[in-house]
Amino acid sequence: MTATAPVVAAAAPKMDPLHHFHVTKYLDFDYLGIDVAISNSVLWMWIAAGLVLLFFHLAFKNPRIVPGRLQSLGEAGYLFIRGIVDDIVGEKGRPFFPYIFTLFFFILFCNLAGLIPGSFTVTSQLIVTATFSLTIVGFSFAYGFYLHGTHYFKFFVPTGVPVLLMPLMIPIEIISFLARPVSLAVRLFANMTAGHTMLAVMFLYVVTLPWWGAWVPFGFTVIFTGVEIFIGFIQAYIFTILTCVYINDSIHMH
Amino acid sequence: METNDGEAHLRKPRRREVPGVGLAMRLGTELVVSTMVGTGLGYMADHWLKSSPWFTVVFLFFGAAAGIRNVYRLVNTNTDSAST
């Protein structure tokens, strides 16, 4: 195994399964010392955002009372997110609905657009998902503090715990709070990266194996692409659910 | 757009359960990340106070405990909003 690995790597220098995660700059811009280059990441974010806009534009271009196929898909998407927000946060979650709706569809389309061969998966970059999660958790913390004042710190004091255990429980609660943005970011990033790496490795086998062996990994990639579409949905869904849960926590406390 | 369905959600709040796969995917990361965050905090505290292994060791266990607590809470409530 160790003997053959460098040979394969040397024979096929371009066959790096992590190659499609590289960020390459197309246009280099520098604004007041801040790097605002147009990279493939930025490009695919725009494409995903454009696809969302296009989808909803087409869905509601000429709305009918009895919706057509695309319109019912759009309505189902709307009601789906609205159901999540109403169920988890309730009436007070309404002001956040537009943000949560945008977040879900943007992440979903980023995940799905990343499955197009030759594209770039925006959500496979930790910095992108970390930006989302830090914004969400930071905002929900600030909002909770705004609503409840110093009373909000009771959030870290679990109820129904003997006073003797408090020195133990409070650090645990604080760590579990601090783990929120990290786990939110890492989950989406890890799922997308792992899935795409696996697909890339399988395609590597398809290319390197002789024709009579190649169909096994090829069949696997076909199946696994389907699984990846499902994972793309599930991850966007989990991200949305958790956003609602965190906002709900800051509004209603315990 | 008809909002009848949306209004129905308001009147009758129902439990929303994440599909099993979603729950399973959350459990693993929750455990790992909490431990990582705890250890990281301990390491930073050590770095700052120059008290080499002590905070790292203690916070490793705090982090692991936080992870287990998160998983326990998650499974207990089945991600039902109110008490997560």
Q: Overview of this structure, please?
A:
Chain A has 254 residues and is mainly α. Chain A has one domain (26-252). Chain A is 68% helix and 4% strand. Chain A has helices at residues 4-11, 40-59, 69-88, 97-113, 126-148, 166-208, 211-252, and strands at 25-27, 30-31, 34-35, 38-39. In chain A, the strands form two sheets. Chain A has a two-stranded antiparallel ribbon with strand order 1-4. In chain A, a hairpin with a 2-residue loop joins β2 (30-31) and β3. In chain A, α3 packs across α4 (97-113). The model of chain A is unreliable at 1-13 (pLDDT under 50). With 84 residues, chain B is mainly α. Chain B has one domain. In chain B, 76% of the residues lie in helices and 0% in strands. Chain B contains three helices and no strands. Chain B has helices at residues 4-11, 20-49, 52-77. In chain B, α2 (20-49) packs antiparallel against α3 (52-77). Chain B is elongated and about 45 Å long. Chain A binds chain B through residues 60, 63, 75, 78-79, 82-84, 86-91, 171-173, 175-176, 178-179, 182-183, 186-187, 190-191, 234-235, 237-238, 241, 244-245, 248-249, 252, 254, and chain B through 1-2, 5-6, 9-10, 13-16, 18-19, 21-22, 25-26, 29-30, 32-34, 36-38, 41, 59, 62-63, 65-67, 69-70, 79, 81-84.
